[in-house]
């Protein structure tokens, strides 16, 4: 994840968007359910040390939507 963070910090949209802007639902209930699901999954994966390398975003967390949102964001050049 360090490479992803470094890339975001150098990008033009880092002053306008944080990770959750693209990788979390915006509605309250779906956001809370996603946070609970991710919290559980993170706890299990990091406790048991059975996460993949590199860590990848799941489609449920906006993997495809994040690319679409970025391409439509102001200053993305598209």
The helix-strand sequence is: HHHH
Poorly predicted tracts of residues: 66-78
| Fraction in helix | 55-70%
The biggest beta sheet reads:
none
Computed CA radius of gyration, to the nearest angstrom: 14 Å
| Average pLDDT, all residues | 76
- Beta-strand share of residues: under 5%
In terms of structural class, how would the helical and strand content be classed?
mainly alpha
Would you count the extended β strands for me? 0
Distance N terminus to C terminus?
26 Å
Estimate the global geometry from the Cα principal axes: flat
Number of helices: 4
Give a structural overview.
By secondary structure, the protein is an all-alpha fold. 58% of the residues lie in helices and 0% in strands. It contains four helices and no strands. The chain has helices spanning 2-10, 19-23, 28-48, 63-72. The longest helix has 21 residues, at 28-48.
Which terms summarize this structure?
78 residues, mainly alpha, 58% helix
Give the helix/strand layout.
Elements: H1 2-10, H2 19-23, H3 28-48, H4 63-72
Summarize the structure.
By secondary structure, the chain is an all-alpha fold. It is built from four helices and no strands.
